[in-house]
Every structure is written in structure tokens, then in C-alpha cells.
Amino acid sequence: MRSRKPPLRFRGDGTFTIVQFTDTEFCRDDEEERRMAAMMERILRTEDADLAVFTGDVIASLGHPDPVEAFRRACRVPEQAGVRWAAVFGNHDSEGMVTREQLHALQLAYPLNAAKPDPPGIHGSGNYVLTVMGSGAGQESKPAVAAGGNEDEAAAGAGIAGSKPAVAAGGNEYEAAAALYFLDSGSYSPLEYTRMGFYDWIRRDQIDWYASQSQRLTEGNGGVPLPSLAFFHIPLPEYNDVWDFAVCYGERNADFSCAPWINSGMFAAMVEMGDVVGTFAGHDHGHDYWGDWHGIRLSFGRTTRNGYLDRPFLPGARVIRMREGSREFESWIRLEDGTVIREQQRHEPTGRTPEVGSMGLNKVYPGGI
User: Fold this and answer.
1) How is the beta sheet containing 15-21 ordered, strand by strand?
2) pLDDT tens digits along 17-68
3) Is residue 48 packed enough to be buried (19+ CB in 10 Å), middle (13-18) or exposed (0-12)?
4) Which end of the chain, C or N, has fewer beta carbons within 10 A?
5) Closest C-alpha to 235, from 256, 254, 251, 259
6) What is the dihedral of CA 295, 16, 6, 126, to 10 degrees?
């Protein structure tokens, strides 16, 4: 199956820039929402983005009379800016009169959307992997191929410093230098009735699918794992671990991050496969921190709409700049007023807090997720 859309590609200077929008919660076409949309388009143009990524809660669908139209307004932002884009879904996207499957089918219909159809038989909707072609890779001789029926032939450089080369010498049949994984982290815990947490988790068949795609791309790269990034809405349990036990940078404006109680093993799988060097989540509106945990940089985006805090917390976006042939990437935050935060506040580890054990069942979370 061949892709009809052009593949993503590094620029001539070897960079590929991603803007992460999160928790935009399009709902009412009012002044607040129009101001947010204008900010988003402004950030895309200012950063000269190659790809925009929505990491869930694209819309607030509960009680909305027309959630599809709200989603269309979100889609118009990157389309009008002329920027390729892709989305994963969060817990608020499908609470109303629309399903995740319908939203995913809708995003695939847009000309600049880079997402892929769901692999058959895998839990959720919005599970796919993209690759980004190198700046000079196969521009004349190779068409874009949906490898494994679920992605474009392409290449990209990204990540955290590592000792392995990013690309096998001489290239490979796919000419891929990196991959971008998009995963549906679900909505609410199916075991909530047993008091087993409140939020959902990435399921076992999704993890197996990720590992198979990672293995296929590694084999196509001469046995060298491709530097990769992963995007999902609900943070992994390890997002609490990194804050409590490692040096982090940025803000956590609550006692914990609202991760699932069930640790289904997604982080362990990424460590085992050796390709993912950075992950990007949303969900917790008042968090924007990042930290390195066993060789993977776990990052929150910056809420694009509202931090729901009792103090000013300007919305904005996280920007990620990948470099071709490298396992290193840069990241910074751009706020609504144009401020760029390249060096976030350092946080020293303080150990596990008692609140993480209860994960908010006995208190109100101030982040308004």
C-alpha cells in the first residue's frame, strides 16, 4: 500500500522541528478559543514548524452539541498555517457524542494530516508510527512506502545523547534515521470500580505492536535502533518516578502526575528496544517538566489552553528540534506572549511523596485534567 501524501523530511540544514500542542480542549467558538487558535498559528509560523502534534484532549466533548465541529476547528489551525500535523487522543476527546475512531478517521481526511490508519486488532484508536526522510534521502529514486501497512518511508534525527550511531553506515532500504510513535493512552481505568486507579494505560497488545515496529525498523537500519520519539496523552507511571528520584527541569504544580496505577510495561519495552530517546505527554495541565530516566527523556508539553491553577500560568507549546543522524534533540517552551523558555527551573529529587500512593482518590487535583 502506497501513501498518497508526501513523506516527512529533514530540511537541508539537517533539522526537523515539531510543535507540541496539548489539552487544547476546543469546545465553544468564543473569544477565548479564537485567541488560543491565533496563538497556535502564530507559534507554528514563528517556529517555522515541520510538524504539529496534538497530544490529546484536542476537544472537550462532554455535553458538547457538536464535538465534530469543535474538532474541525482544531484541525483548521495547522491546515491554515500550512503545516503537516498529527494527533493522539485523550480522556476528554470521546466523552461526548463522538468516538475516538470517528475522530481518527476525520483527521486522516485532511490534506496536511500525517497520521496513519490504525493497525488492525490493536486496542484504541490513533496508534501509528511515522518516519521522516533524510534531507537528501531518496528524493528522486524512492517513493513513500507505507512500511508494514502503517507508515511512510522516511528518516529523521532525534533524541538524547547516546553512544550508538543513529544511522547504520551507508543507509538502508528505508533510508530512515528516526521514528515517531503515536499511541492511544486511553481514557479512564476499566478497573476503577475496584479502586484500581482513575486513568487508563497503554495496553499489552499496543506494547507488542510498538516492539514489532521498532524491531522491523531496527532490522531495516542494519541492526541499529533508530532514534525515536513517542507521543501520548496520559503520562506513564515513570513520570512520577523521574520527578521523585532524579533531577528534573520545569514545574509540577500538584503533588503527583496523574498517571495510571497499572504499570503495563511500556517504558520497559522502550528501554529494551533501545530506540525511543524522548516521550511527550499532556493531561496534567499544570505540569511542564522533563527529566532523564534510564536514558529516556520524559517530557510534558505546556498546556495550550489553561493551567487551571490559582495563579498565572501562561499557555503555550513545547517545541522539539531533531537533528538528522543524531540521538540528541533540543526542546524549549514558547508562551502565548512570545516568551521563550530554554532553561527551565531545576528541581532536585525529594523521594517518593505519600500522595503518589493514593493518586488523588482522596483529594481534588488542582490541574483540572
Assistant:
1) 84-88, 51-55, 15-21, 316-323, 329-335, 340-341
2) 999 999 999 999 999 999 999 999 999 999 999 999 999 999 988 878 899 9
3) exposed
4) N
5) 259
6) 40
